[in-house]
Design goal:
The complex is a heterotrimer of chains A (416), B (256) and C (478). By secondary structure, chain A is of the alpha/beta class. Chain A contains 8 helices and 19 strands. In chain A, 21% of the residues lie in helices and 41% in strands. The longest helix of chain A is centred in the C-terminal third of the chain and has 18 residues. In chain C, helix 3 runs antiparallel to helix 8, helix 6 packs across helix 7 and helix 10 packs antiparallel against helix 11. Classes of the chains: A alpha/beta (416), B alpha/beta (256), C alpha/beta (478).
Chain lengths: 416, 256, 478
Amino acid sequence: MSSWLADTIERAEEVNDWLSPKRKKSLSLLKDTRWPTRKTEAWRYTPVNNIERARFNVVESQGAPATDIPHLNAIDIVFIDGIYNAELSSKHFPEGLTITQLSEGNSSSWALDSFSKTKPERHFFGLINDALATQGCIIDIAADATIEQPIRIAQSFKQGTQTHTRILMRLGERASACVIEQLEGDELCFNTSFAEYQLAASAKLEHYRLAMQCADAISLGGCHFHLAEKAKLNSNLIGFGSQLSRVDYDIIHAGQFTDSKFNVIYLLDGKELFDLHSAIEHTQPNGKSEQNIRCIVADHSNAIFNGRIHIHRDAQKILAEMNNRNLLMSENAQINTKPELEIYADDVRCAHGATIAEIDKEAMFYLQSRGLSRNEAQVLLSFGFINELVDLMNNQAVAQWLRPILKQRFAAMEVS
Amino acid sequence: MLKITDLQVKVADKDIINGLNLHIKPGEVHAIMGPNGAGKSTLSYALTGRDGYQVTRGSASLDDQDLLDMEIDQRATAGLFLAFQYPVEIPGVSNMEFLKVAVDAQRLARGATKYSASEFLKLAKAACKQVNLPLSFLKRGVNEGFSGGEKKRNEIMQMIMLEPKLCILDESDSGLDIDALKIVADGINSQRDGKRSFLVITHYQRLLDYIKPDYVHVLADGKIVKSGGPELALELEAQGYSWLESYDRNAGDASE
Amino acid sequence: MTEQLDEALSREYEAGFVSDVESRTFEPGLDEDVIRRISAMKDEPQWMLDWRLKAFALWKKMPEPDWAHLQYNKMDFQAISYYSAPKSMDERPKSLDEVDPELLRTYEKLGIPLIEQQQLAGIAVDVVFDSVSVVTTFREKLLEQGVIFCPISDAIREHPELVKKYLGSVVSQKDNFFSTLNCAVFTDGSFVYIPKGTRCPMELSTYFRINELNTGQFERTLIIADEGSHVSYLEGCTAPQRDENQLHAAVVELICLDGAEIKYSTVQNWYPGDENGKGGIYNFVTKRGICHTNAKISWTQVETGSAVTWKYPSCILKGDNSIGEFYSVALTRGAQQADTGTKMIHLGKNTRSTIISKGISAGKSNNTYRGLVHMGKGATGARNFTQCDSLLIGDKCGAHTFPYVESRNPTAIVEHEATTSKVSDDQMFLCQQRGLDPEKAVSMIVNGFCKEVFKELPMEFAVEAGKLLEISLEGSIG
């Protein structure tokens, strides 16, 4: 066992709060789980040994909050270096919305009950988060409530911090809401950030995870969704890589007539790595899921995608699609993708496609024949390639805020 | 304006254009007709510089600038415009954004200042209207989900915006019904200002009812085998291309 | 509808008979002494024995892999006999007249006539019965053109320079658990050498038969196509119907030198076990080829047998402009499990690979495609196209796809597509409305699904493969 892990376990054993019964269970699972290495299938392309070597402190919150998203008009929940900042956070919530802090303790039995219920046990760093996340929030939306204002959970991380945060959200029947998880920071830090979302029957969630930590940051996290009958999810993930960025997504279609859409953009530069593992579980018939994953990989970066569609026995009449397209822009960059299907029902329509290619030559010719230089055409087309997914975002404030950021990041990329 | 001398073009090691000569003066409209496989599209791709179209002999210049020496985009900013037979779809890149970058490049090449956003929008709207495309098309991805006719009209709109010196229209009439054809032809005619030249490539005479050419050339086996006035197009319409075969045989005999 | 389809898919295993041949069989168990005895039986030189012992030492330290999507009872490697040969083969027969008639009858029953007059024109056959090669036809005729086609045990003695140079050069001694075991205990198999610039005048084929109870078959095949040569090689396999599981752990190595082409086709019809998963062959096979400049290897496989299949015929595209192809039909039914696919390792410039995989699952079976496409740093301008289609028949089976795609070169293009579908009620209705009975309808739909792969098979095999599927689909609908 690495000294880092030993320290972590030691710290976890000292945590004592209302979630302790859950934490104890995860901690004992953690002790039985092997430290992931390259031989661990889920970590095949993503080395985690830099975690063992790095030293982190738990420091007082001192950094700046995450960048503001103009025109968003959101309900803000702000964490700086993993600690809730009441001053910068919204205090008044519309009817039907309750937000409490994990650190306050929560007497409601559903919160204790639901903690670590949607997130599968297999996630090594999820177990660490279970044991150590004392900061985070619990969002409860009453049945039939429609929360018009988006809820923004903004997290920023500074040099040398080690933080663990957790989001737990419940949408009541027919409730609807939009949640934006924003993560920022480019200095060496270590954070785990996991979120669990429970959608009751006919609930609707619009979700964004803007995983925009980059450069030296080490970030491990996950978003786990549980969809009851007729629930609908539309989730968008923006991935900037960093020294180590790993996100696990689980979308569990646990009721009939559930519908999920999941769009992902990777934009990697330098020596960044971004690793997404997604699992779409269809346990009930008549569900629908669609995933689009687009990656642009430059310089010495490494994009990893492992997408799994799992159709359980008797989950008939499922429509599941996954489309993964990658642009490899540099000789030193790499793409590792594995789109999996695991199917146990016959009356389903499942398809996945994965391509790794250069920019479309025909489109290049078209643009150049209109007078655009090679470089201009390349930038426009590559940006178009990811912008297609930005165009599909429902929240215009987020889309408008993102476009120039993505464009700028792309323009600065090292391509060959 | 456009001067092509003894042009030879290879595609995948096969000679497609073989000793073609053509001279277009400012303001003239030339039509090139010919059977399938005669090399009509190859000519347009060779002139615009597409990869895989290798010029092995001859020259081509636009206003005395050597076209063959230039990059694709340099040819475009020198004033060469190709209206594609099958315009490619580019999802995610909006028509508006694309047009703005392309017009900026033209302005830069001519030493003119960029249009401001509002000036540009005004021009784009006007062009849109002229080819009867709804304004919403400006926001959509380039050619994305456009019908065949809409794509062709979008090509003409780009032509209007980019104000080229020489326009090559590659089968701009194919796949159009009569109403769409009129709109396309009107768009093209509106750009005839006595200085701008056109090279109209078409299989059928139909388009030439609407865009009156000054000269008609027949392309077969990679060279111009016959030239004449507009009456030649009518002749072709009546006789088809089969008479070319006998012409070929004669030519073959003669060279032996 | 599903029941009808299921019934349509049930079939008798036609190759399930046992030949009454008196055999010399080693006691079950595996140690150095067993390996020495195998080597002695084969009259091998010392270097071969040393090579085997080295592999055995490696194998003892290796764990059995568990990453495949397979569930089976782990084998007891001490309960298997590693050598069995008919007593009549003690003295190797010099001609067909000396071969035990019972052996000849066995092959005749399997549709492979060995009697001179009945031999299939244009196909040379090496027949391997348990641990020995019984006969190799047309051996002399092929030698006239310099083509060497013989049992590998003969090649070890007669062509040691070729065997030493290439054995273990594509699949190294420590490649994987099953291949390393094979290195230690392999008994027979075929050896092929095609000289420079030669187009092998006939199809070469090897027919493998496991007959004896409790024995494993560990065949080893080595094919060397010298520069500019061409060969088409076919492989078939069957085994008797028994309640016990039997292990088949083969290694096939292909060496395709500059400008050469090897076409390797397999129709695998080992005994699949009964409906409930009792008995059947455990088929753990390592097949790999290396392509030098401008060379081409094409793998085609039709996998209908075995209780468990673990097999990934692969290509290392080392030379510039080399080509790798993989065409596969895998049909699982009853309690069969297949985890099969390919690896295309692109190292050279402008290398090309095509993967077409068709998986059909019925009954309670599980059918997995597992593949790797790797574009190395040097694979400038390389291309891969992969198409994996699964057809599910019935709601108790499973179809899975695990493709790994890795790219390290920005000019390489990879395209991967996968779909799953079922034999739809609409398709069945249409066929039946046009007068086809349900059996024919399913057979036609499944055959259509597999067409892209069948057209890659040599003609004789395409017929056999078609028949195999037809038999599979034959049933009691009426």
